[in-house]
Structure formats: structure tokens, C-alpha cells
């Protein structure tokens, strides 16, 4: 049986369909799920002041909301009252900062999740416990991967929920990368797409490590990745461009 390009290189919608809606909002996640070929959504999580996992990329509110200051200084209820959509387009005015629980409810049975635990929470165990407990409550342990740049977070996840898959995020490719992944019990490598090539994919395949390439958005980069014969995920802001790449195999500049 021949594997289709879409199956070979599954699309992960980066912060939702963030090229078409404000990143890390319910609007972006809903938009991503309108494309039947998108099976994965990537999102970012911090803890609020009341220790609720909330979905936002930055540790501060300045870039993507109408407020300033640190995410961890506000409660989840206070964050829900902010405008996290107007910066993108006025049509999304009033889009709130969602909780992870809202996203789990929205995507249940519809889409798998790649949850990045963002740096900034000093208590790794508490952070891991809050996230893992929600995944268990919604029975999402087996269709979710938790990723982070911070190895301490990944170790904490494995202490609290060894059944949940974890992945290390990196924008480098040191010679010790596979050994590091093994030491963390991580089965996923989330790596900047410029490092993805035959030699890396050969190494990760031998080690049974799944690869996700982030974040190619230019049509030429997507086309190059989609043409590779080895399986790996492509995490992009533009699932439509990904779909064109895997369907046609090339783009017209």
C-alpha cells in the first residue's frame, strides 16, 4: 500500500491556524479543524496566578492582548476578559485567552494536541501536575504529546504521568541530541525545519524518535519538506499551504 504525502507528512497547525486567525485562540483552533486533513494542533501553555493552565505563547500579555504585564500575575478569569483578537484583525475583537480545559473540550474526538509547556513557571512539578491532571480528566493522555525547550518540565511530566508522550524542542542540532532525548524518555523531537534532512531523519528513525519540523511557512520550504521520502510532521501557520505542498509536490512562486 502506498503512503500518501499527507500521511507521510501530517500537518500540525501551529498555534492553531495562526495564519488566518489570532494565534492560540479558540478561533484559530476552530479554523484549523475546518480542514479535514489537519489531525494535530500545536499550542502553548502557561500557568495563571491561580495555577490554571492557560493558552498563550508569551510570558507577557503585551504582544497578543489589550493588556500589559505578566500572564502569571492574572487569574484565568481575569485573562478570559482580555481581548486577544483585535491585534490580528478587528473581526476577532473580544477573543479571550482560553484555558487548556476549554481547548481539550473543543478538540475532543476531533484533533490531537501538541502542548508546549512554556518556560517561566519555576515549579516544574506543579506545572506538570496541572497539565497532566487535565489530560487525564479528559482522557487525552494517548492523543497528546507534551513538548518543551525546558528538560526539567519533561522530566516532571514523566514523574507525574509516564504514559504521556513527551518531546524536546530545539533550534539546534548538537551531536548529543539523540542521547539527550533518550535520557529524557522523550519520543518526539520538535526541531527548527532548517535542520531536517536525510541524516537527521535516519538517526531519529533508528532511535524510534518522531520528528516535527517547525515552522515552515514559505511555499518553497513547505514544498522541499513535502518532497522528502521519510515520515515526519510539518508544523505550520498555514495548513492550506501545507495541503497544496503535499497534494501537488511543488509551488509556483
TrEMBL record:
GO molecular function, one term: phosphoric diester hydrolase activity
One Pfam short name: GDPD
Any one Gene Ontology BP term: lipid metabolic process
SUPFAM superfamilies: PLC-like phosphodiesterases
Domain annotation GP-PDE: ranges: 9-246
PANTHER family: GLYCEROPHOSPHODIESTER PHOSPHODIESTERASE, GLYCEROPHOSPHORYL DIESTER PHOSPHODIESTERASE
The protein's name in its UniProt record: Glycerophosphodiester phosphodiesterase
Taxon lineage: Bacteria, Bacillati, Bacillota, Bacilli, Bacillales
Amino acid at each position: 500500500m502506498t503512503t500518501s504525502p499527507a500521511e507521510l507528512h501530517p500537518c500540525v497547525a501551529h498555534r492553531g491556524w495562526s495564519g488566518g486567525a489570532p494565534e492560540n485562540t479558540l478561533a484559530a483552533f476552530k479554523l484549523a479543524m475546518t480542514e479535514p486533513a489537519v489531525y494535530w494542533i500545536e499550542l502553548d501553555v502557561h500557568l495563571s496566578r491561580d495555577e490554571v493552565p492557560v493558552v498563550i505563547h508569551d510570558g507577557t500579555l503585551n504582544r497578543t492582548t489589550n493588556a500589559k504585564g505578566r500572564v502569571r500575575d492574572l487569574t484565568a478569569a481575569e485573562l478570559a476578559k482580555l481581548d486577544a483578537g483585535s491585534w490580528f484583525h478587528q473581526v476577532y475583537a473580544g477573543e479571550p485567552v482560553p484555558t487548556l480545559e476549554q481547548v481539550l473540550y473543543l478538540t475532543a474526538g476531533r484533533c490531537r494536541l501538541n502542548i508546549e509547556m512554556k518556560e517561566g513557571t519555576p515549579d516544574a512539578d506543579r506545572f506538570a501536575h496541572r497539565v497532566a491532571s487535565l489530560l487525564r480528566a479528559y482522557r487525552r493522555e494517548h492523543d497528546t504529546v507534551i513538548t518543551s525547550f525546558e528538560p526539567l518540565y519533561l522530566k516532571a511530566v514523566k514523574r507525574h504521568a509516564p504514559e504521556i508522550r513527551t518531546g524536546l524542542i530545539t533550534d539546534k542540532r548538537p551531536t548529543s541530541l539523540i542521547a539527550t532525548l533518550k535520557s529524557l524518555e522523550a519520543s518526539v523531537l520538535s526541531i527548527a525545519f532548517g535542520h531536517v534532512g536525510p541524516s537527521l531523519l535516519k538517526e531519529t528513525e533508528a532511535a524510534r524518535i518522531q520528528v516535527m519540523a517547525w515552522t515552515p511557512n514559505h511555499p518553497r520550504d513547505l514544498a522541499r519538506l513535502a518532497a522528502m521520502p521519510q515520515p515526519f510532521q510539518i508544523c505550520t501557520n498555514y495548513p492550506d499551504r501545507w495541503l497544496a505542498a503535499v497534494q501537488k509536490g511543488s509551488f509556483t512562486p
